[in-house]
Amino acid sequence: MSLLGETQAPGPGDLIKEGSDAGFARDVIDASRDVPVIVDFWATWCGPCKTLGPMLERAVLAAKGKVKLVKIDIDKNPQFAGQLRVQSIPTVYAFLDGRPVDGFMGAVPESQVKAFVDRLAKAAGPGAASETDELLAIAKEALELGDAGGAAQAYAQVLQAEPDNLAAIGGLARCYLNGGDVERAREIAAMAPADARNADLESVRAALALASEAPSETQAFEHRLAANPDDHEARLELAKALAGRGQLQEAADHLLMIIEADRDWNEGAARAQLLKVFEAAGPMSDVARHGRRRLSSLLFS
Fold it and tell me: Is residue 92 within a helix (H) or strand (E), and if so which, with residue range?
């Protein structure tokens, strides 16, 4: 029995719940205006999900009410998993103030799960945003506006204080990659452990992989397409070259043209490459969101 006036910590039922598409707006969007809400997209057949789930639950309970967890079985509730472009499971998103602000894919070590939850817990409550959070927000906005120099400066400032900050590592690598310095971008990305998972870091790693496999020239493929617009092999190679240069929208357009003409060409090579482009652009990017809508309309029309 608690003493009169004693404050009780929230119980597991208040902090962790099974979610649904029907309750997503209430349990995630609305609830995240009070405290950060972690959404764990999982399925009963997913082995790594069974490892990650308990780790998330332990970390959320340890945060003592500063973070909530909503677990969504994608087989029973596919709507929001589809809208958020969940490509594989487990996938985890963090929501704050009604929008996704962080996330990762795949099972990660428990130390990284704890760091992820602790970082979100710092954002709980009015006025709780740290200097790091503010710098990351400034950097991300600058990068979206094309100010790579300003973004790089803010990310570097974060890394001076927190050398292992995954969002800053991924963001700074993206700055160099957007500026055409692939090798420096690769060096920055390598500052993170190989098994580290973070949405920004995963995106830039995918972009670096595209750069590594991209043809160096486009002229030959452009000439082949001018002679024969149905030369899917030339269009695929051109898309790879464009993606390697960071021209992800143009690459996606070419790949969607192949899928529209012959969705099963070369055992679905265009679709497989398109998914790599979406990952490099980031799940919340216009390239991924609009591209997935176009892909769905082509596959299910």
Answer: strand 91-96
Q: Which tokens belong to 261?
A: 């003409």
Write out the two tokens for 71. Answer: 């677990």
Assess whether the previous peptide bond of 100 is cis (omega < 30° from 0). no
Closest CA to 17 of 44, 51, 57: 57
Write down the pTM of the prediction.
0.60
Structure tokens at 67: 């973070």
Q: Using CA atoms, how far apart are residues 224 and 235, in angstroms rounded to an integer?
A: 9
Tens digits of per-residue pLDDT, 111-121?
889 888 988 88
| DSSP reduced 3-state for 230 | coil
Q: Distance between CA atoms of 172 and 238, rounded to whole angstroms? A: 27
> Which tens digit of pLDDT belongs to each residue from 216-257?
899 999 999 999 999 999 999 999 999 998 899 999 999 999
60 contacts 38 by C-beta, under 8 angstroms: yes
- The C-alpha atoms of residue 24 and residue 31 are separated, in whole angstroms, by 10
DSSP 70: E
Contact in structure between 41 and 95 (CB atoms under 8 Å): no
**197 phi and psi angles, rounded to 5 deg:** -125, 125
Residue 167 · residue 182 · CB < 8 Å: no
Asked if the peptide bond before residue 90 counts as cis, ω within 30 degrees of 0, the response is yes
Query: CA 153, CA 96: separation in Å to the nearest integer?
Result: 25
Which residues are known to be catalytic?
46, 49
Tokens matching residue 172: 């700074």
pLDDT, tens only, 167-185: 999 999 999 998 889 999 9
Q: Are 164 and 118 in contact (CB under 8 A)?
A: no
